[in-house]
Amino acid sequence: MVKRVHIFDWHKENAKKVEEFAGWEMPIWYSSIKEEHLAVRNGVGIFDVSHMGEFIFRGKDALEFLQYVTTNDISKPPAISGTYTLVLNERGAVKDETLVFNMGNDTYMMVCDSDAFEKLEAWFNAIKRGIEKFGNLDLEIENKTYDMVMFSIQGPKARDLARDLFGIDINDLWWFQAKEVELDGIKMLLSRSGYTGENGWEVYFEDANPYHPDESKRGEPEKALHVWERILEAGEKYGIKPAGLGARDTLRLEAGYTLYGNETKELQLLSTDIDEVTPLQANLDFALFWDKEFIGKEALLKQRERGLGRKMVHFKMIDRGIPREGYKVYANSELIGEVTSGTLSPLLGIGIGIAFVKTEYAKPGVELEIEIRGKPKKAVTVAPPFYDPKKYGAFREE
Predict the structure, then answer these.
(1) Which of 60, 89, 114, 295 has the highest local Cβ count within 10 Å?
(2) Which of helix, strand or coil describes residue 49?
(3) Count of other CB atoms within 10 angstroms of residue 177
C-alpha cells in the first residue's frame, strides 16, 4: 500500500507533480524544481517531510541501547538537542543516517529516512529481544512515523520567519539544538536543522493522519494543515515557496550531502566480513565515536587496516552534460568508479555529482571523464559544497 503524509490532499491539489518516492506518494514540485530551489537559496521555502521516520526510545536503558546501535556519542548533547549519527550493520555498512534528539527524562527521538524506518524497526526490536533473553531491559521502542508531522523551513529568510512566528532567533541555537515552541496554541518541537545547506529550522508535532495504516488512528489533520498554511501566510512577505522533493534533492546535492540509498547503503555482499558502503568510504568519519562499542565497529577497524578500495568524491562537469546515477567514471581511460548522484545545478548552471572511485583518485583537483550517453565528458573533482560558501549556505557572509 502506498503511504501518504497527513496533508497529502493539499499537496495533491496544489502540486504540479505528485509521484511515489520510497513507498510514499509525495509532491515532487509545485511550480518547478528550479524556481523552488532558487527560492530556498535566495529566500525561503517550506518542505513537508512528514514521510521521514520517527522512533521514540523510553526507559532507563534507552541511552545505553542507542549508544550500542548507533555510531556517535548520544550521551554528549544536553536536552533538548540532537546528534547526527549512523546505524550500521554488523559488517560496517550504513543501514541509515539518523538524528537522535535527547528529549530529557530518559527519552530520545530518532529521525530516520523514509525508506529505512521499517527495516530499522525490525532491527532494533530484534536486538532488544536478544538482550532480553539474558536479562531485564528497561526500554520501550515506539514507531511514531505515521503520527508525527515534520515541516522543514529553509533559506536565508528562514531566520526572519522564525522571529515572526515564535519570537526566537534560530542563530542563538547551535546546529541540531531544539526548543519547545507554540503556534496558535499548537505545541511543537523546533530544531535548528535541515538538509539543504542553508540556515533553517524544522518542526515536529503529532496530529491525526487520514491515511494512517491503523484505521482507529485516522482523522482530519487540522493542526498540520493550520501550521502549514500559517507558515505560508507569514512567509508571503519573504517570497516563501512550497518546495517538493525535486528541489530537496538538488539542494542537498549542491551542498554535497549524501542521500541514503545512493551514497549510503548496505549492499549485503556475500561471503565477506566487511560490507559496503561503510562510513569510512562515504567520508562520514566525523559521525564515529571510537571510544565506545557499537555495532559495526570491529568491521570498520579491519577496513582501516586493509584499506578502503574505493571512496566517495564530489565532481563538477567541465564539458556540457548532466551526470546521472549509474554513469561510469574514468581516469586516463581506466574505469575507476560510478556516479551515485548527479544533476544540473540550478544555481551554477553546470552538471555536478557524487561518485565512488578508486581511493587514489578521491581527492580534489583530479581530472575525470564521465560517460554520458556513450561519450566521455570531462569533469574535475572538488571539495564540497559546490557553491561559494561566502555567498550561499548556512554560514554565508551577510
Answers:
(1) 114
(2) coil
(3) 18
Phi, psi of 188 (to 5 degrees): -155, 165
Name residues whose C-beta falls within 8 Å of residue 64's C-beta, 6 or more positions apart in sequence.
none
Strand 24-29, strand 328-331: pairing:
unpaired
Buried b (16+ CB within 10 A) or exposed e, 231-249: beebbeebebbbbbbbbbb
Which residues make Cβ contacts (< 8 Å) with residue 271, sequence separation at least 6? none
Helix (H) or strand (E) holding 48: strand 45-48
| Strand, coil or helix: 25 | strand
Which three cell numbers, joined as nine digits, stand for 53? 521516520
Residue located via cell numbers 536503558: 61
Q: CA neighbours within 13 Å on the CB side: how many for 342? A: 25
> Is the CB of residue 355 less than 8 Å from the CB of residue 293?
no
pTM of full prediction above 0.85: yes
DSSP 170-227: GGGSPTTBEEEEEETTEEEEEES--SSSS-EEEEEEE---TT-SSGGG----HHHHHH
Q: Residue-wise over 45-75: b if at least 16 C-beta within 10 A, else e?
A: bbbbbbbbbbbbbbbebbbebbbebbbbbbe
The full set of domains in the chain, from first to last, is: 7-52+146-255 (3.30.1360.120), 54-143+267-303 (3.30.70.1400), 309-381 (2.40.30.110)
Residues 6 or more apart whose Cβ sits within 8 Å of residue 70 = 85, 86, 87, 98, 100, 294
Asked whether the beta carbons of 198 and 41 are under 8 A apart, the reply is yes
Bond from prior residue into 352 cis (ω within 30 degrees of 0): no
Q: Are 100 and 82 in contact (CB under 8 A)?
A: yes
- The string of pLDDT tens digits covering residues 314-345 is 999 999 999 999 999 999 999 999 999 999 99
Q: Give first-to-last CA distance, the chain, whole Å.
A: 47
- Residue 202 in marked binding region: yes
Q: Given its phi and psi angles, is residue 326 left (phi above 0), alpha (psi -120 to 50 degrees) or beta?
A: left
Helix (H, G, I), strand (E, B) or coil at 164: helix
- Residue whose C-alpha is closest to residue 317's, from 305, 304, 329, 335: 329
The DSSP code sequence of 231-277 is HHHHTGGGT-EE--HHHHHHHHHHHT---BTTTB-----SS-SS-SS
pLDDT tens digits, residue range 338-390?
999 999 999 999 999 999 999 999 999 999 999 999 999 999 999 999 999 99
